[in-house]
Amino acid sequence: MNWFKSKAMIIAAAQTKPISGDIDGNILDHLRLMKLAADKNVDLIVFPELSLTGYQRALAASLSFSTDDSRLDRLRQAAVDWQLVVVAGAPIKMEDQLYIGAFILYPDYTMSFYIKQFLHDGEELFYQSSPDYNPIIEIGDERIALAICADINHAQHPQQAKAAHASLYAASIFYTPNGISEAYELLSRYAKIYSMAVLMSNYTGSSWELAAGGCSAFWNNRGELISSRDASSAGLLLMQKDQGNWIDFS
């Protein structure tokens, strides 16, 4: 189904400051940012990698979500009430395997999920990867492909998104300050090469005893950086598509 509620499409990257392991607190923060997005008539809000738990490795199994986890009920109902498509990150357990994933919550209470396809070094000790859960989100004229963190380090990933006729590539990441310039370079390049707009959502604060780099950002399909947040504050980066061009709506 194609989700679109306004004449001019509006999307949001949520730059969050998760509390490691505090799922209830992180859910409340997701709801807070979702309400802010709904008040701006946003169609799609994208949260960072593992946003519901904070970035985890050794503790991920104890914090993992099932594919029909009741802890998502408040977020799912809010997506309905506020008519939002929501991408929220969590460790997902399926058939005794643990994955880094993102739940996609739709305005009719349905749900799907994306699974990270490429892992960082060391993540393979705790997680599996899979290419089998890679939905395209359709909103208005946009076809939105998802990525999680290390996915963007592999050029075949955005190439695959382009092959699926994606017009927007939405990356949920956890990058430290030292990695931000690399992420910017990669995502700008992909936007230009594959003629896809790119939305990036990152943490601020810290997670897994590492500082997060913030700087959530948006590039147009020519690879031009249109808007970014600072490194330290939580909040929303808002973009509106107006007569075919994306403009900062924050």
Sequence-ordered SSE layout with sheet pairings:
Elements: E1 10-15, H1 23-39, E2 44-46, H2 60-63, H3 73-81, E3 85-94, E4 97-105, E5 111-115, E6 137-139, E7 142-148, H4 156-163, E8 168-172, H5 180-194, E9 197-201, E10 206-207, E11 210-211, E12 217-219, E13 225-228, E14 235-242, E15 245-248
Parallel strand pairs: 1-2, 2-3, 7-8, 8-9
Antiparallel strand pairs: 1-14, 3-4, 4-5, 6-7, 9-12, 10-11, 12-13, 14-15
Helix pairs in contact: 1-3
Give the tags:
globular; alpha/beta; 15 strands; seven-stranded mixed beta sheet; single chain; six-stranded mixed beta sheet; 250 residues; Nitrilase/N-carbamoyl-D-aminoacid amidohydrolase; 5 helices
Per DSSP E runs of 2 or more residues, the count of β-strands stands at 15
Please summarize the sheet with the most strands: 7 strands, mixed
Q: What do we call the CATH topology?
A: Nitrilase/N-carbamoyl-D-aminoacid amidohydrolase
Give the topology string: H per helix, E per strand.
Answer: EHEHHEEEEEHEHEEEEEEE
Overall shape: globular
Oligomer: single chain
Number of domains: 1
Low-confidence stretches: none
**Relative strand content:** 25-35%
Strand arrangement in the largest pleated sheet: 5-4-3-2-1-14-15
Write structural notes for this entry.
- The chain is globular and about 45 Å long.
- With about 250 residues, the chain is an alpha/beta fold.
- The chain has 5 helices and 15 strands.
- It has helices spanning about 25-40, 60-65, 75-80, 155-165, 180-195; strands at about 10-15, 45, 85-95, 95-105, 110-115, 135-140, 140-150, 170, 195-200, 205, 210, 215-220, 225-230, 235-240, 245-250.
- The strands form 3 sheets. Strands 5-4-3-2-1-14-15 form a 7-stranded mixed beta sheet.
- It has one domain (about 10-250): Nitrilase/N-carbamoyl-D-aminoacid amidohydrolase.
